[in-house]
Amino acid sequence: MIKRISSGGEFEAKVGYCRAVVAGGFVHVAGTVGQGETVVEQCRNALGVIEKALNEAGSSFKDVVRVSYFLPDRHEFAACFDLLSNTFGANPPAATMIECGLIDPKYRIEIEVTALAPQSR
User: By its UniProt entry, which CDD domains does this protein fall under (predicted)?
Assistant: First the structure.
């Protein structure tokens, strides 16, 4: 069974995707950008959107097994370390950071996660 979770974000309809898909024992959360002026504000906002999708799927940050961070400027990543460390706490996932262009230059970070689905825990 596949469950699709939409957040109603502007790019979901434009690009043709949903915020998260629960399938194969995992919750796959699409790359998520956040609102705000700074990389930390955008990171915090993106994590909030991701948390909402995980909760709707019956999961949480403690169930995340993989996270990917995409930033147009790798030098900004260090500013997010405390926030990310506090978010994942004692349950850190495997992680990758990639420096790349994002869909709009106003975005400073995009975050994608994979978590265990409730029936897989």
Answer: YjgF_YER057c_UK114_like_6
pLDDT tens digit string along 91-120? 999 999 999 999 999 999 999 999 999 887
**pTM of the predicted protein model:** 0.94
Closest CA to 69 of 52, 86, 50, 54: 50
Per DSSP, the residues of the chain read --EEE----HHIIIII--SEEEETTEEEEEEEE--SSSHHHHHHHHHHHHHHHHHHTT--GGGEEEEEEEES-GGGGGGGHHHHHHHHTT-PPEEEEEE---SSTT---EEEEEEE-GGG-
Neighbouring CB atoms inside 10 A of 40's CB total: 18
